[in-house]
């Protein structure tokens, strides 16, 4: 039999510290349990997942199953992280499910740890269920991880159980030795749903709040900085040219500062105004028009326009635009020079939605502009994010899950003084309120009953804790 990919690494190499998740595996604990793990958005949840798998490899568990995302882009991102960060043991990262299933006895007998990283959908979950029903799987220890568990994993049906929810529960029921870890940065739908579940076997047995490093720059950090810029526009405004132009000029200016200080500096400008793909196309065209208009201006006028924006938003600036004009023009020209002479499309401007999900790779271009809605609102990491324009919010109360997932500027960011986010007053107030909510979630996270009661009793005019 030919093995497609087996990675053998130094058995003596110790895995990285698993923060407070390591307590789950203390004394080789294989007690079956379903754990809700809460980690702040972009705080390193994928790293925790990899650490858990490393621990299972060390403890000679048999299988790790990771539901790695709800779209191909997220799943591929997770696979790349595994290829890079899996450290110890004799492992097989499965590329072909049917082949792995056919040869599963070989892997078990040779103590090769199987790792399945799969898109979260009906078809893949049915395959996993088939795997967990095998007799040989009953004697192995299985780690089942549901990443982004608040998305698609809850019961969204008002009559019967929704398909994905039902399949996940059936898989957990089939596992005899091992654990199911459900991970999310926005657990509110899971918490509220858990209190309604009648079948005790399908409920979470406990919850915990994942620790993160002090270098994390998240909700509290950015609320205390002057990174948020208030625009009076919202996504329904007919004329969004003003916030588009202002945020583009801001991006050019602060990217130029980054480039002045580091010749290898990269930056990304994210535009999240609407979920509608037709709106994405309109924005895409408008950004092209902005560049075309700027090309007609003498350099002095472009620099003067940047100065007007800096004064309007009361930026505390280190450099007058004229002092870094060479860097501003260099970045501007990197977009203009990438324009395709046939299509007149600038190659460094990307649409990221279901029609164009494979076109963008973070960091591939030194300077990029990314336009989207759903796909730039959850899971995907924009490593070089410098500026964002976010007006994507409903007229009614904002669901906190959606609000926090859209904060793609959270993470382990360096040069945070260069990061700026344009938003309207409603979104700004929502992030302030969300900070108070997350403080309480963290406070009650070790007591699932108290956590449920807090979420059920919460009321506010700005934020709601359920997307329903």
Give an overview in words.
It is a single chain. The protein has 16 helices and 16 strands. It is α/β, with parallel strands linked by helices and 468 residues long. The protein has an 8-stranded mixed β-sheet. A 6-stranded parallel β-sheet has the order 9-15-13-10-12-11. Strand 6, helix 7 and strand 7 form a beta-alpha-beta unit. The protein is globular, with a radius of gyration of 24 Å.
Mean pLDDT: 87
- Computed structural class: alpha/beta
Percent in strands: 15-25%
Tally the beta strands. 16
- What is the first-to-last residue Cα distance? 50 Å
Rg result: 24 Å
Please write out the topology.
Elements (H helix, E strand, L loop, with lengths): L6 E2 L24 E6 L6 H14 L4 E7 L2 H14 L4 E4 L3 H6 L1 H6 L3 E7 L2 H11 L2 H4 L3 E6 L15 H12 L3 E7 L3 H7 L11 E4 L9 H5 L4 E3 L10 H21 L5 E6 L4 H20 L2 H14 L12 H12 L12 E4 L14 E6 L12 E6 L7 E2 H6 L14 E4 L1 H20 L3 H10 L5 E2 L4
Parallel strand pairs: 2-7, 2-8, 3-5, 3-6, 4-5, 6-7, 9-15, 10-12, 10-13, 11-12, 13-15, 14-16
Antiparallel strand pairs: 1-4
State the gist of this model.
This protein has 468 residues and is α/β, with parallel strands linked by helices.
Question: What are the main properties of this structure?
Answer:
disordered N terminus, 16 helices, globular, 8-stranded mixed β-sheet
């Amino acid at each position: 039999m030919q093995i497609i990919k087996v990675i053998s690494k130094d058995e003596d190499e110790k895995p990285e510290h698993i923060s407070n998740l390591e307590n789950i595996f203390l004394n080789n604990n294989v007690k079956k349990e379903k754990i809700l793990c809460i980690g702040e958005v972009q705080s390193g949840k994928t790293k925790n997942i990899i650490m858990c798998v490393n621990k299972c490899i060390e403890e000679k568990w048999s299988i790790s199953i990771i539901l790695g995302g709800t779209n191909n882009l997220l799943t591929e991102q997770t696979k790349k992280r595994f290829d890079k960060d899996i450290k110890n043991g004799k492992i097989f990262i499965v590329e072909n499910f049917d082949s792995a299933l056919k040869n599963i006895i070989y892997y078990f007998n040779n103590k090769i740890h199987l790792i399945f990283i799969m898109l979260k959908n009906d078809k893949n979950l049915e395959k996993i269920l088939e795997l967990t029903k095998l007799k040989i799987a009953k004697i192995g220890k299985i780690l089942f991880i549901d990443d982004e568990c608040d998305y698609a994993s809850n019961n969204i049906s008002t009559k019967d159980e929704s398909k994905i929810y039902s399949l996940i529960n059936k898989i957990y029921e089939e596992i005899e030795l091992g654990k199911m870890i459900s991970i999310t940065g926005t657990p509110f739908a899971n918490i509220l749903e858990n209190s309604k579940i009648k079948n005790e076997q399908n409920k979470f047995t406990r919850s915990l709040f994942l620790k993160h490093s002090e270098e994390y720059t998240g909700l509290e950090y950015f609320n205390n900085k002057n990174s948020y810029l208030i625009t009076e526009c919202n996504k329904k405004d007919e004329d969004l040219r003003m916030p588009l132009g202002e945020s583009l000029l801001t991006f050019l200016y602060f990217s130029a500062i980054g480039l002045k200080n580091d010749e290898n500096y990269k930056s990304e400008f994210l535009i999240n105004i609407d979920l509608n793909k037709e709106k994405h196309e309109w924005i895409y065209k408008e950004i092209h028009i902005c560049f075309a208009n700027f090309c007609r201006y003498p350099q002095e006028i472009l620099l003067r326009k940047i100065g007007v924006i800096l004064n309007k938003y009361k930026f505390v600036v280190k450099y007058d635009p004229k002092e870094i004009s060479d860097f501003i023009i260099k970045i501007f020209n990197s977009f203009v020079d990438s324009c395709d002479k046939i299509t007149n499309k600038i190659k460094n401007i990307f649409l990221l939605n279901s029609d164009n999900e494979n076109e963008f790779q973070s960091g591939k271009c030194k300077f990029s502009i990314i336009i989207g809605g759903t796909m730039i609102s959850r899971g995907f990491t924009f490593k070089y994010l410098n500026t964002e324009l976010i007006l994507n919010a409903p007229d009614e109360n904002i669901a906190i899950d959606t609000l926090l997932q859209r904060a793609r500027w959270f993470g382990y960011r360096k040069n945070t003084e260069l990061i700026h986010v344009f938003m309207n007053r409603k979104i700004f107030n929502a992030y302030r309120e969300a900070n108070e909510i997350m403080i309480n979630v963290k406070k009650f996270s070790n007591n699932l009953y108290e956590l449920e009661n807090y979420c059920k009793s919460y009321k506010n005019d700005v934020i709601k804790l359920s997307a329903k």
